[in-house]
Amino acid sequence: QTEDSLVSISRPAAQRNVDVSVNQTAQFWRKAVVRCANISTASLAAARGYRDKPDRLDVFEALLVFDLLLRMTKALTEADGPSWREKLPPIPTVPLSVREKLAQQAAANQAQHDKDVKKAQALKEEGNALVKKGEYQKAVEKYTQSLKHNGSEVTTYTNRALCFLSLKQYRDAIRDCSDALRMDGSNVKALYRRAQAHKELKDIKACVDDLNSLLKVEPKNTAALKLLQEVQKK
């Protein structure tokens, strides 16, 4: 055979091999897309772990995933064209057993949350009773226990701040008021009690700033107006 005839035979064969390779690659990536979409509960837990601790995420792994996505997109586009997404097989739904397990976990978590909130409320009320008796240190202990069960209760922070003021633990009072204000930026009690703590620590500017913020919320607050007048005389 001549060189020309060999070339004429080899080219179609090479083209056929390329077509087979592209089709096999596309089929592989279609399955990969479906596998990626069918996320397991364990994968979700791992993802949450990376979300909570981003320092654990390996940058090299992230680059590998990005490269993988690029190659997958390129292979499917070459095989099926720009509309390759429409040709993907149906993505599997979450199995009923998994959905039931997730529902049970959600119900258990809600039950534990409700239990914690109830316990926190009981401990806070015990602290309130101790404040009325003037037993501020014991009240602080009750409020601290309450916050371990429910750390999002603003009034527990402001109540404990009141105790810290009475115990002359002014920096602790500022900390609690600041925590309360992060959850409720216009909380009058938190602003006033933090202003009181700043005054005792001789930080007049911070005290005035808190009082001015308070008066924007309640312009006629007599306690704030009186304290502002007092510190401005100094």
UniProtKB/TrEMBL annotation:
PROSITE patterns: TPR. One of its GO terms (biological process) is protein targeting to mitochondrion. TPR repeats lie at residues 120-153. InterPro entries: CiliaryAsmbly_MitoImport, TPR-like_helical_dom_sf, TPR_rpt. It is found in: Cytoplasm. Keywords: Cytoplasm, Repeat, TPR repeat. It comes from the Eukaryota. Its main location: cytoplasm. Gene3D superfamilies: Tetratricopeptide repeat domain (1.25.40.10). SUPFAM superfamilies: TPR-like (SSF48452). One of its GO terms (cellular component) is mitochondrion. Coiled coil: none annotated. SMART domains: TPR. One of its GO terms (molecular function) is heat shock protein binding. PANTHER family: MITOCHONDRIAL IMPORT RECEPTOR SUBUNIT TOM34, RNA (RNA) POLYMERASE II ASSOCIATED PROTEIN HOMOLOG. This is Translocase of outer mitochondrial membrane 34. It comes from Cyprinodon variegatus (Sheepshead minnow). The lineage of its organism: Eukaryota, Metazoa, Chordata, Craniata, Vertebrata.
